């Protein structure tokens, strides 16, 4: 498993930008929207661009060091593990550097943590290092004990990150409290990505101070410029 990506809690705009996965996951999105997202990501100097796997492969600007992230089992997590594994492997074959997979959080709510771990292991086996695997746990839908248990399962299965949210669940997105619970669960052994509903710089920096080192944002420009973005991912 890769070492955790531990970013500074605050700093310059360029440092903040390097914690961001600039995200476009709207189901109604068109190819032109994805191309604009990629161009904006390169312009802003963010770490990666995060898209749906059907949008791969991406054409990155020449000379760009932009990473490519693809989601897997998104957004419900209600996919067979073999399907998630195949989706992740195809995304990597088409240029993804990182995979953000969604667990079956219904199984987590039921207490079937072994099943959650097996699901993560299947994807990890399909996309071994150096591919970075982030595990979306939908923290707003889980109580603290379940968040802790699921984070333990992700660590045991070889995940590089645990991630708060899809940004699509009605229970909500990232919270400082959830990031703190996740950090206590994984210590400095696994990195944390906060995503879902982070719409201003104050909230973004609060997530980093709580223990996140990566942020999933769709309103990256607005956040970096100190404004407030629209509701959503």
UniProtKB/TrEMBL annotation:
<dbReference type="InterPro" id="IPR002915">
    <property type="entry name" value="DeoC/FbaB/LacD_aldolase"/>
</dbReference>
<protein>
    <recommendedName>
        <fullName>Deoxyribose-phosphate aldolase</fullName>
        <ecNumber>4.1.2.4</ecNumber>
    </recommendedName>
</protein>
<comment type="function">
    <text>Catalyzes a reversible aldol reaction between acetaldehyde and D-glyceraldehyde 3-phosphate to generate 2-deoxy-D-ribose 5-phosphate.</text>
</comment>
<dbReference type="InterPro" id="IPR013785">
    <property type="entry name" value="Aldolase_TIM"/>
</dbReference>
<dbReference type="Pfam" id="PF01791">
    <property type="entry name" value="DeoC"/>
</dbReference>
<comment type="pathway">
    <text>Carbohydrate degradation; 2-deoxy-D-ribose 1-phosphate degradation; D-glyceraldehyde 3-phosphate and acetaldehyde from 2-deoxy-alpha-D-ribose 1-phosphate: step 2/2.</text>
</comment>
<keyword id="KW-0963">Cytoplasm</keyword>
<feature type="active site" description="Proton donor/acceptor">
    <location>
        <position position="100"/>
    </location>
</feature>
<keyword id="KW-0456">Lyase</keyword>
<feature type="active site" description="Schiff-base intermediate with acetaldehyde">
    <location>
        <position position="163"/>
    </location>
</feature>
<keyword id="KW-0704">Schiff base</keyword>
<feature type="active site" description="Proton donor/acceptor">
    <location>
        <position position="193"/>
    </location>
</feature>
<dbReference type="InterPro" id="IPR028581">
    <property type="entry name" value="DeoC_typeI"/>
</dbReference>
<comment type="similarity">
    <text>Belongs to the DeoC/FbaB aldolase family. DeoC type 1 subfamily.</text>
</comment>
<dbReference type="InterPro" id="IPR011343">
    <property type="entry name" value="DeoC"/>
</dbReference>
């Amino acid at each position: 498993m890769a070492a955790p990506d531990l970013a500074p809690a605050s700093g310059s705009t360029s440092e903040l930008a390097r914690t961001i996965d600039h995200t476009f996951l709207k189901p109604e999105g068109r190819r032109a929207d994805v191309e604009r997202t990629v161009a904006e990501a390169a312009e802003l100097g963010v770490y990666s661009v995060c898209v749906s796997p059907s949008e791969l492969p991406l054409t990155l600007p020449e000379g760009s060091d932009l990473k490519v992230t693809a989601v897997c089992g998104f957004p419900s997590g209600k996919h067979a593990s073999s399907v998630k594994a195949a989706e992740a492997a195809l995304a990597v074959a088409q240029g993804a550097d990182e995979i953000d997979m969604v667990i079956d959080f219904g199984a987590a709510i039921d207490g079937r943590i072994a099943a959650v771990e097996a699901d993560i292991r299947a994807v990890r086996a399909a996309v071994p290092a150096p591919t970075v695997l982030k595990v979306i746990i939908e923290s707003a839908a889980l109580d603290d004990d379940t968040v802790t248990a699921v984070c333990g399962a992700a660590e045991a299965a070889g995940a590089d990150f645990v991630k708060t949210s899809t940004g699509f669940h009605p229970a909500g997105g990232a919270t400082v409290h959830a990031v703190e619970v996740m950090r206590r669960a994984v210590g400095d052994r696994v990195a944390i990505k906060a995503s879902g509903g982070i719409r201003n710089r104050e909230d973004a920096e609060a997530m980093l101070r709580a223990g996140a080192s990566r942020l999933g944002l769709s309103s990256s420009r607005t956040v970096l410029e100190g404004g407030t973005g629209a509701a959503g991912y």
